[in-house]
Write a structure and sequence with these properties.
By secondary structure, this protein is of the alpha+beta class. It has helices at residues 2-28, 30-36, 122-132, 146-172, 180-203; strands spanning 44-55, 58-67, 70-74, 86-89, 93-99, 104-110, 116-121. A seven-stranded antiparallel beta sheet has the order 4-3-2-1-7-6-5. It folds into two domains: 10-135, Pleckstrin-homology domain (PH domain)/Phosphotyrosine-binding domain (PTB) (PH-domain like, Roll), CATH 2.30.29; 146-203. α4 packs antiparallel against α5 (180-203). It contains five helices and seven strands; from the N terminus they run ααβββββββααα. The radius of gyration is 21 Å and the shape is flat.
């Protein structure tokens, strides 16, 4: 009986997980985009893996491929069996950029009227544009100097480290036995590693 209970719990969890994925697929517009822009064989000009994106109202980590005929959105891993790849023709894409102090983003809108949208960091759009060349909807590339990446990520590291240091210094004042140096050094090290990874991705 206990084995059946464990098996039933596993099956129930899997079905619940699939239900959540299905709901997110409809709410984000992924399934609608899939119907409008089904995948087809293409020559891949550049592949970018594990890109943090917002598709509609949902956040995903995607593989983006600049192809001869368009931009392919691919969900990595087993989830890709449910979220099938999408290939959006270049002529169906409109690009809008936003430039904030420490953050630049690019929003891609698909179709007219709009069938969906995709948002990610501007450096991703720059790399896709460089690969697509004249196919890119903006018609030109927006190269960013390496110095700007160093300055932006350096400021992000400084702000993130300062916030963590202030928070854990406050925690240290609440009768904890851990030395304040450990409480500050560990999260600051994590912020440092994250910023180094971001810098490498932007400059690669």
């Amino acid at each position: 009986m206990e084995k059946f209970a464990v098996f039933g719990g596993i099956v129930g969890f899997v079905l619940f997980f699939l239900l959540i994925l299905t709901i997110v697929g409809f709410v984000s517009g992924w399934f609608r985009l899939r119907r409008s822009y089904p995948d087809r064989p293409q020559t891949v000009l550049r592949r970018m893996r594990y890109i943090s994106c917002r598709v509609g109202t949902a956040h995903f980590v995607l593989t983006l491929e600049a192809c001869d005929g368009g931009l392919r959105l691919r969900m990595p891993g087993p989830i890709g069996l449910l979220y099938r790849p999408i290939l959006i023709p270049w002529q169906a894409i409109r690009v809008t950029r936003r430039d904030f102090w420490l953050w630049q983003s690019a929003t891609l809108e698909f179709g007219q009227p709009r069938a969906g949208r995709l948002r990610f960091e501007a450096y991703v759009a720059d790399k896709l544009a460089a690969a697509a060349g004249s196919r890119w909807p903006e018609g030109r590339v927006f190269p960013q100097p390496a110095s700007r990446a160093f300055i932006q990520i350096g400021l992000q590291w400084l702000i993130g480290s300062a916030l963590f240091a202030a928070f854990f210094a406050f925690v240290h004042g609440q009768d904890t036995d851990l030395p304040v140096g450990y409480l500050i050094a560990i999260p600051v090290a994590m912020v440092t590693v994250a910023c180094i990874i971001r810098l490498i991705r932007r400059l690669s």
